[in-house]
Amino acid sequence: MNERSDIGTAFGTGAPGAGTASAGMTGSGAAMAAGPVPAAGLSGTAVDAAAPRQSLTEREHRSRRRRLNAAESLRGLLFLLPWLCGVAFFLAYPLIYSIYVSFQKIGVKPDGSGLSYTYVGWSNFRDAFILDNEFPVEMLQFVYRSVLTVPVSVIFALLVALMLNQRFPGRMVFRTIFFLPVIFATGEVIQELNAQGQGTIPFLQQYNVTDLLYSTFSPSVAKAITGILDQFVIVLWYSGIQILIFLAAFQTIAKSTYEAAQIDGATPWESFWKITFPAIVPFIVLNLIYTVVDLATYPFNPVLKLITLNMEDVDTGYGYASALGWIYFIILLIPIAVLVIWSRRQTREKR
User: Does residue 180 lie within any of the structural domains?
Assistant: First the structure.
C-alpha cells in the first residue's frame, strides 16, 4: 500500500495534491488555448507592431509618385548634362542665328565691307512653296523614299538581330562585321564608294528591273523605289546601330519566360509574337526615330544638296537657305513627334 501511495504521489494520482496539480494543468491548458498573453512592459509595442499600416490616401499616393518621377527625371538630366552643355556652347548660337537669318534677305554691301541684312518677313518661307519649283518636288521625293526606306531598314535590322542573337560558332565575328560599316562609313568614304559604283545592285541593270518598275508604278513611286535600289547596299550599311539596339532589347527579356512558354507548348513563331515583339516595341519606335534622323542627314540627300546650292547662290543666299532648312526640320519633326506621343501612350497603358 505504501509503494502504491508513493507511485500515485509521484504521478499526481491518489494524492492530496492531485486535484491542485490537475487544476493547475487545466489552467495552463486554458491559457494556452486562449493564446499567448503579451508581457506587461511590451504589450503596447507588440500591439503596435502587429497592427496593419494605414493605407495612403490618393493625395499622398500622387505626391509620392510625383517625387519618384522627379527623382528619375533628375537622374536622366544628369546623364544628358554633357550633351546639353555641348548644345549650349556649340549649337545654341547657330540655331538662333539661323532663325534670325531666315527672315532676312542677305547680300554683300556695295563697299564690300560685310553683309547687308534686309528684313523680308515670311517671304522666304512663302517663296519656297510658290516660286521655287525644285524644293517641293525634292521634298516629296524624300518623303516617298523615307516611307519605303525606313521600314525596310528597321525590318532588316530586326531580322539580322534575331539571327545574331542565336548561339552559333563565330557569333561575335558576325556581329563585328555588321557593325564595322558604322565606323568606316563616313561621308567621304560613302561618296567615294558610290562614285565607284559600289552602292548599286548589279542585277538591276542585268534584268532591266528599272524599266519594269516604271511600267508597273507611277513615275514618282517608281523613281522613289529606283532610288532605294540604287543605294540599297549603302542603306543596309546604315543598319548597324539599329541592329545593336535590337540586340540590347533582346537581353532585357528573361530566359525563364521563353522556357515557360516552351513548356506550355508554344512554338518559336508564337513566342516571337507573344513575348519578343511586345517587349521590343519601345525599341522599334526608337529605331524608327533614329532611322528617320539618319536618313535626313544622308550624304546623298537631295534636299540637303538643294539647300547647299541655294546658300551658295547670290540671288537666294543664306536667308533663303536658312528658311529651307527650317521647313525641312519642321517636316521631319512631325513623324518624330507622332512616334514619341504614340510611344508614351503605350507606356502609360502598360503601367
Answer: yes
Total count of domains within the chain: 2
Alpha carbon 288 to its chain centroid, in Å, reads 9
For residue range 176-219, list pLDDT tens digits in order.
Answer: 888 887 777 666 777 777 777 666 677 777 778 888 888 888 88
Q: List, in sequence order, the alpha helices (H) in the chain.
A: 2-10, 18-34, 43-50, 58-86, 92-102, 123-130, 135-164, 171-184, 187-195, 203-206, 209-216, 219-230, 232-237, 240-250, 255-263, 268-271, 277-296, 302-312, 317-350
Is 302 in the same domain as 159? yes
Structural domain harbouring 61: 2-81
CA 58 from chain center: how many Å?
A: 31
CB 172 within 8 A of CB 164: no
- Which residue in this structure is represented by grid cell 541684312? 117
Least confident piece of the model among 25-29, 78-82, 169-173 = 25-29
Percent of the chain with pLDDT over 70: 81
- Write the pLDDT tens digit of every residue in 108-154: 887 777 888 889 989 999 999 998 888 999 998 888 888 878 888 89
If you count them, how many residues does the chain have?
A: 351
Question: Grid coordinates representing 172?
Answer: 561575335
Task: Let me know whether 144 and 288 are in one domain.
Answer: yes
The answer to whether position 208 is within a domain reads no
- C-alpha 237/C-alpha 197 separation (Å) is 15
Q: Are residues 38 and 173 in the same domain?
A: no
Is 64 a member of any domain? yes
Asked whether residue 174 falls in the same domain as residue 320, the answer is: yes
Task: Give the CATH number of the domain where residue 242 resides.
Answer: 1.10.3720.10
What distance in Å separates the CA atoms of residue 30 and residue 278, rounded to the nearest whole number?
Answer: 60
pLDDT in tens, 98-113: 999 999 988 888 777 7
Contact 190, 202 (CB under 8 A): no
Please, what is the average pLDDT of the chain?
A: 79
193 part of a folded domain:
no
Q: Can you tell me whether residue 119 is helix, strand or coil?
A: strand
